[in-house]
Predict the structure.
Amino acid sequence: MIVGIGIDIVDNRRIRDLYQRYGDAFIKKILHENEMGNIKEGNIIERLSGTFATKEAVIKALSHIHDKDIMPSDIIVFHNEHGSPFVKLDSRREPIGEGLSIHISISHEVEYSVAMAVIERND
């Protein structure tokens, strides 16, 4: 059963400006330590924008079922061997996701990145 949905769109220019202004400090604020190595592969602005949109979409989806504050750095975005994205919660936040499956989709255009999250209860 679906128990939460979330969507977020990010202006890639905004992320580029923040990255140019704050550099690694900006990256550390939104990324989990397990994401640091992967983010600098390929188009860094596109990756940062897509990752940020994904985290915001997951936070929105989780807010339908949990009232705990979840930070972007609590959510880890991975890609499988085929390039498909998936997320996990930081081990400190795993109890929130217990019994849930989080499905995500990310898309990019020149100026925008968008992500959607669907939370399903595993009954």
